[in-house]
Amino acid sequence: MQTLVATKPRILYIDDDPLNRSLVNRVLTSYDFEVIEAETGLEGIKIATKEVPDLILMDINMPGLDGHETTTRMRTISGLKRTPIVALTAHATKGDRELALTAGCDGYINKPIDVDNFPNQIVSYLAGQKDTISKDEQQHYLGQYSKKLVERLETKILELEDANARLQKVDKLKSDFITVASHELRTPMTLVYGYARLLQSAIKESDQAESTERNVVSLVQKIYRSVHRLNEVVNDVLNVFLIEASSMQIQHQRVHVGKLINSALDELNPNKNNRTLHITLKNMDELPEIVGDAERLKQVFWNLLSNAIKFTPDNGRILIEGQVTKAESRPTSAPQPGGQVIVTIKDTGIGIAPEEQKEIFDRFYMVEDTTYHSSSKTAFGGGGIGLGLPIAKGIIEAHGGRIWVESAGYNIERNPGSTFYVLLPLHPDQSFT
CB atoms < 10 A from the CB of 88, how many? Predict the structure, then answer.
């Protein structure tokens, strides 16, 4: 193969498309050029500053700093002011060439490249060839380029302001989480400590064996409940990080969703915890068995039911309904291969604002004001540490399902209510072990 140059000039090629980089690399290396690749404008500036190539090929349409902006920045670096920079781009509309030259490029080559002629074009630019435009054209396109830079700057400033607002929100969420988590952990720990001291006193001071036994049993039960709550908080924190790390283990077995929901309701037992709520179950016994992790799915429904109870005022209603759908999600009277189970939990509670209906599934996000936080799982307005719904979402998605909420909005006086949907696949072909 003919060698066009005596030495091996180094060519830096900046392009975000790996296929383009591979083609140009193969063509130029076969003609004894050394090719260095960069994927982004920022990476190209870093490499060019360090390596000082003999020529730079510049794609124009790149994410981040585009080719125009990267070229302009390179022209301010002392070691690159005289380095030939050639635009290699698919942009071929009127003014594209002139805009590239105005930004600081010395040449302009259209894609797709002419494989046979391309190396000769590079040699010409290395030898000092420069494409030119008239002063009037340069002035015209300089104005266009300046306008483009200002618009890009405005866009970036808006993006930074939005990112800053999100960071401030995340910072507040973390602060709220620390406040609530401290409360959640301190409450059972304080109770354990207090009941343990009472237990010591009851044993030391009581002269009647029967009275002592009753006191001991009562205090031990309270200690157990406090430790159980402490264990729940620790498990919630652990579960959310297992979900984020995709490390949550799912035990597949036959599961009857209706029985899980009944069990969760029995544990929450709102009507025996000073709450007056009308809770109705519909079609739950008719649901088929699915394949899933019974313990984790029960945790999902426990969290959802706990929220419905907490945010529904007394004398409100909660409807829990099950149905089976085909794969295309149309109701059907019998399970179909590839079908799904959908459980809806509809309450007449305070509702959820539209802008919060996605955010409530983010970890540590809490709708209630943390200043009035309560650890109760059934009291109206009670709260947790903001992990119940993120955990529920992670568990349902680990089962191949979906969870979402619909609500007309938030209003503590009119109580528009919320409806949570849990969709789980039937997995009819899943094998059991």
Answer: 26
| Strand-strand pairing, 331-332 and 107-110 | unpaired
Matching residue, tokens 């009857």: 256
Helix (H) or strand (E) holding 416: none
pLDDT digits (tens, 9 = 90+) for 308-323: 998 999 999 999 999 9
Q: Give the closest residue to 91 by CA, choosing from 103, 80, 82.
A: 103
* CATH fold group of domain 251-425: Heat Shock Protein 90 (3.30.565)
DSSP helix/strand/coil, 340:
strand
Domain positions in the chain are 10-133, 167-243, 251-425
Give the torsion sign (CA, 229, 232, 234, 237): negative
Q: Do the beta carbons of residue 13 and residue 21 sit within 8 Å?
A: yes
Residue 334: what pLDDT? 42
Q: What are phi and psi of 255, to 5 degrees?
A: -130, 135
Mean pLDDT estimate for the chain: 81
Angle at 250 between CA 245 and CA 255, to 5 degrees: 150
**The architecture CATH gives domain 10-133:** 3-Layer(aba) Sandwich (3.40)
CB of 346 closer than 8 Å to CB of 275: no
Task: Map tokens 């690749």 to a residue.
Answer: 37
Q: What pLDDT does residue 348 have?
A: 94
Phi-psi region of 329 (alpha: psi -120 to 50; beta: other; left: phi over 0): left
- What pLDDT score does 268 carry? 86
Measured between alpha carbons, how far is 184 from 388 in angstroms, rounded to an integer?
14
